[in-house]
Write a structure and sequence with these properties.
mainly alpha
Length: 75
């Protein structure tokens, strides 16, 4: 049990030290929550939104914009 406690304490110290170094560089931690792209619900919603964009009267203009800002095709 002692080894387990020491290992936990060691990890805690490493994390604390890392956070102190990062904060000393002027950064601060944040936490963000994003959609889980692995779920079926996400896939369904992404497909529905993709269809809506593709069937829009502005589909060509939208795609031209995406192509212009994405940098695809550049070496």
């Amino acid at each position: 049990m002692t080894a387990n406690t020491n290992r936990k304490h060691g990890s805690r110290d490493k994390v604390r030290s890392y956070r102190e170094r990062v904060r000393a560089r002027g950064l601060r931690p944040i936490q963000i929550w994003v959609p889980d792209t692995r779920t079926a619900a996400f896939r369904v919603q992404a497909h529905l939104q993709s269809l809506a964009v593709a069937q829009s009267e502005f589909a060509h203009e939208d795609q031209d914009f995406v192509d212009a800002v994405s940098g695809l095709g550049e070496a």
